[in-house]
Amino acid sequence: RKEVEQDPGPFNVPEGATVAFNCTYSNSASQSFFWYRQDCRKEPKLLMSVYSSGNEDGRFTAQLNRASQYISLLIRDSKLSDSATYLCVVNSYNFNKFYFGSGTKLNVKP
Amino acid sequence: ETGVTQTPRHLVMGMTNKKSLKCEQHLGHNAMYWYKQSAKKPLELMFVYSLEERVENNSVPSRFSPECPNSSHLFLHLHTLQPEDSALYLCASSQVEGTDTQYFGPGTRLTVL
Lengths: 110, 113
Fold this sequence. Notes:
The complex is a heterodimer of chains A (110) and B (113).
Chain A: E1 4-6, E2 11-14, E3 19-25, E4 32-38, E5 45-50, E6 55-57, E7 60-65, E8 70-75, E9 84-91, E10 98-100, E11 104-109
Parallel strand pairs in A: 2-11
Antiparallel strand pairs in A: 1-3, 3-8, 4-5, 4-9, 6-7, 7-8, 9-10, 9-11
Chain B: E1 4-7, E2 10-13, E3 18-25, E4 31-37, E5 44-50, E6 53-57, E7 64-70, E8 73-79, E9 87-94, E10 103-104, E11 108-112
Parallel strand pairs in B: 2-11
Antiparallel strand pairs in B: 1-3, 3-8, 4-5, 4-9, 5-6, 7-8, 9-10, 9-11
């Protein structure tokens, strides 16, 4: 079983739509959680960390459910510029090791 | 502006060449990583250095040889590569203590002819 699993998509949504991605992780001892964004042929960039209490940054909301071992990312009022691949990342029991999901591709259409 | 730089940004090499990729981080981190990302595939962790010691080697072929002379610099030495080694090679750094995340360099896009 993979450490981190994501729906690869693609999610094709119109501008202004709300879209949600989920990600599941296998290690219950996982310590920290992140969402990254990766544009085509570019490096992954941190979008936001995910805290147990949930956190929001503008149009983006991240949630963590430790009991069910999943994290989610909600994007409201989608913009064309949100088109990218979103990577779920989990830092497990070993602080040196980060587990990346395979990414969920989002296409926002005009 | 990222605190992790990589050179060169693009590299084309033949199968018999020897080349090196360089990564430098300016974030004061003490762990550095090499990842490989092939077209339309997820990131693959290759090597991890923590406090300048290699702590992870994910069964990477010996034609890839990492070097970490200090906590700010990381190299990936390449020799007798294969065309299937063509990919984006990403360097990242993080702080071992705590739960901070990784920061990536812009990558080296490698093409092996």
